[in-house]
User: Fold F-box domain-containing protein from Xanthoceras sorbifolium.
Amino acid sequence: MAAAATLPMELIVDILSYLPVKCICRFKCVSKSWLAIIADSQLAKIHLSRSPPREKHLLVDKFLYSFDHLETGFGGGVVPAYPVMKKHTSGSVAVEVYESCNGLFCITPKTDVYLLFNPSTRESKKLPYFQPTYGNDLLSGFGFIESIDDYKFVKVLEGNTVHVFSLRNFSWKVVGCKFLFDTDRCIEFGVPLNGSRCVKHGIPFKGKLHWVLDKPDYRGRVIAAFDLVKEKFKTLSLPPGCFTCLSGIGVVGDCLCVFDIGKNVFWVMKKYGKKESWTQVSKSDLCKPIAPSCFLKNSDMVYVARYNSKWTFCYEEEGKKWKDYAVDGLGSYRVHRYVESVVSPNYK
Assistant:
């Protein structure tokens, strides 16, 4: 490795950025200088900007498991999942998980404890405790803002109060914010695979957090988007005629989507913020409730499906064939999509 040590840092970063995450993690042991290079956020950004990152799923029960569709293959049947965190989990209660940004999760293994966690590198970091102001939690979420290069965790409380944590500053602040929505029938991730309602977690996309909420006095529904830069709410219109049937909101590919797992219909917003760009996709020919999850490299779609009282995955082959697979040892779990990355909880 002596010869490698003489290479310019820029060239080392460029070479590493083309490698799988597992390989990059192994190179942390080469030297302190390589460890510093890999820990730097510059490598994480370049690595994410290369060819489309590998998409995986985090399965949440009393522990956290990683599930890789490409590694598992698509022959159907029962397939394994691999534990990625046990150190911070008690095993007695389900871990609370917020949607990921660039492969980084915010998780709550127990009350009032928040961790940033990357399942690809197994790194974690505890957030400082915050003293909540008056009011119960209404909404919460974790997101990334590319324009200011920062990750933020948000808790919306009663009384128009929002607590915002900045990873770059590693501190909390309280902001006032007009909150003109009703959260009684809040729709967030919408695929509660343990059979219960999820906590009201927002979907991160385009530097905003998104929920489907009622207008005051239940005068219709909208997508409420909290801008993580301006730290204010704005609204996006839902597809026409879908107000009463929605069961979830998420991101598929590079588009925001809402879906109805009862009718196997989902709508994709092809141009963010443009009401007229909503496009409906129907999979009514499949005799099981499904929710869109992610694309494979060949543009085939992976879905989460309900079948014989158990949740499984299935994928579509060239829009025609379907294959199903269940996860070994897990009959009740929640699903969160993420991409492999070397983004560190110590992001700077």
